[in-house]
Every structure is written in C-alpha cells, then in structure tokens.
Model the fold of this input.
Amino acid sequence: MNIAGLNMEGDRLQAAVISRGIFPPGPVKRIHFEEAPLPADTQGKSSAVREMLARLKERFNVKAVVLGFENWRFSHHVIELPAMKREDLKGALAFELEKHLPLMPEEYAYDFIERKQENGSLKILVFAIRTESISWALEAARAAGVKIAGLRNSFIEMLNEFLTEKKKKRGIFVYAGKKDAYTAFFSDGKPGLIKTFAAAEAQAEVERLKLADPADVYFCGEGVFNQALAYENVPLVPAYAVAHSVSKKRPVRMDFAPAGTSGLASAGSPRAYTYALWGMAGFCVLVYLLTPVLAYYKDYSAYRKVEAQISGLKKSASGLLESRRSLDDIRQRKEFLRGFQSGMNKPVKVLSELSRVLPGDAWLSSFVIEEKGKVEIAGFSNNAAMIIEPLENSPMFRKVEFSSPVVSRDGIERFSIKMDIGQ
Done:
C-alpha cells in the first residue's frame, strides 16, 4: 500500500511517498520525494495540496495521506493531574482545557504526552490546533480522493524518527527551517521541553539549554552551527518522517485528526494485515490440534445417555427454578417502586425553586440531579456572579459553588454551578 506524507512548512510543500508491505519485518520502501511552492493564502494552499495529491495518486497509486503541520501552529499547555489511565486522562483534559484554551475544547484537535513525576502525579504536555485553521487541508485531501490517515506535528514526527533510528535516551534535538526553529529536550525517550523560536536564534538558544544541562546536541535542517558548539548532524526529511508515522512504532504517538475523518482506522493501523495473517495461521493450527479430540465424539450412545439424565434432572428442578425466578422478579419490582416513590417529586421541586430564585437574564442549558441530593446546572447569563447569592439564600440549596471557571464570549457568560439539596 502506497502512502504519502505531506509537510507544509512556510512557503514550501514537501511530499514523500512510501510503500508499506503486509509481511513483517520487511522494511518500508521509499518511492518518491518532491517539493512545490505553498502559497500564503488559504485558497492557494488548498489548491496546491489538492494538485499535489492528485498527481501522486495518478503516478504512484497513493491510497492515503498523512498531513504534517509546523510546530508553531500548535499551542502547548502543561497541566498537572493525579495519576490515572490514559483513557481517563482524555475525559479529564476535555474539562481542564477550558481553563487554558481561548475557545471551547470542541473547536480544537489535541493530543498529549504524559510523564509520571516523583510525587506520583502526572505532568501532561498538551498540543492543540484549532480545527478551523486546518480545514482547508482536509478538504483538499478529500477533493483529491485520497483517504486521510492522520494529522501530525511534523517536528514531533522528526523527533520520533530520530529516536527510532538513533536509540538515544537523552539529549537536545534541534530542527531549523527557513524561518523557524524548534528544540526538544528529551530524556527516557520522551520530550520534556519543546520551544519555538526564530531560526537565526537557534545556536544561542541551544547554548542556553546546554548551560542548564550539558546534554548532547543533535541538529537537523537548514544552516549549521559554528565550531564552538559541539553537535551531531542528523539527516532527516520532514515529509518522510510524517509518512513513516503510520508504518513504524513511534516513541511518542500523537494524532490530531478530528473525529470522523475518513480512512483513519484502516490507514492508521499499519499492523492490521499482519494481525489478520497471524489470526488465520493460529486458526489453522487450532483446527489441526483439535482434530484428534473430535474423534472422541463418535460414541453417540454414551452421549445420548448422559443427555437423557440431564434432561430428567431439568424437568424435576424446573418447578423450583420457576418459583425462584418469580420471587426474584417480585423483589425487584418492590425495590423499584420504593426508589421511585422516594424520589419522584424531587426534580419537580428543584426546578420550581430554580425558576423562582434565578435572575431573569439567566437561562439553563443543562440540569442534572443525583439520587444522593447533588444538583449541577449549566447555562448562560449576562452576569454569572449574581446567580450564586439567590441560590445561597434559598432554603432548598446549600454548598453552592461554581464547578468550573466562568467562560465569557460576546458579553454572555457561560457558567456551571453545583450544590446540595438541603435536608
């Protein structure tokens, strides 16, 4: 399967085509590389990407593309959270990012790297890119008839390529383009500090980092450092690093493809064919091993005799089992009616009290009441701070507080408030 990697950097568009085989451990084959101008306006960029992909599709039968964007397009946020599983972190970050992003998190594509700290908590490095700012690239790929295998941070993928090839555990990785440069201080194979600055300041920035920590320097990109700074030159091509992200195991796995992007599951799973082949081989081995066992089932007379005995036992016990099921059903109905009776009027009373005490310019978009007497509301108001006092003065509510920061947009404030129902 042929896959293209596009790197959109400044005023140039890099494209690389690789061939990914289905039998491990065969290497990924590099097929083609080319560059083209990338206009400054959005419409021109979209046309350039569409034309490039259409040409690659026609010449090399490219089925999927990985889109790579410059590091400066991503905002970086450091968040500390208690230790938890990665799946739980995704849900927690959706709430925490409201405090760090200027717009709602739903308007961004984001991913993160977590590192465990000495106190047991997690330090989360979050990269976020506004979906609207890259929609032109997604539309261009769809218009060219090429599936989108993923969206990447090109600098992160170059760091992945370097860590995969060189097997380094600690150091400073530098990439310098025409205008911008990026550094990543990494340890234990994961980045801990990433910075963006002008390409002309690359050497001065690295020298400052080495004063704080004299780690080895690995340089990639345009330009060179002078002899006063010891470093190792690493020849990497951003477009190939982006393309390889769907074909190689990466130390830092990050994907910024918005939900619902076509072709993500199939192209984003480079080992799918391998797993299918191993699955079929395992099935064949299993059938071969079970063949002798199947011979034991030729004695149908013994099997029928045991089956008849089981059938008799079932008949004698059926009456008892039916009575047990009826009794359990009655108990469940009784418990349900008790629970329903105890709480059926509570939501109506709470809503009635809220409509009485809330200011006239406030309206609700969400209302949740729990069985334990906890209430959470969310909505909009011209002045969210004026909502707390009437709720506290109500005899029905206590422990009234904001459950998340107030977000203001166009003069309207979005609030979330939690409280307990008084006894």
Summary: Confidence is low (pLDDT under 50) at residues 262-270. The two ends are 66 Å apart (CA to CA). Residues 300-343 form the longest helix (44 residues). Residues 315 and 321 are 10 Å apart (CA to CA).
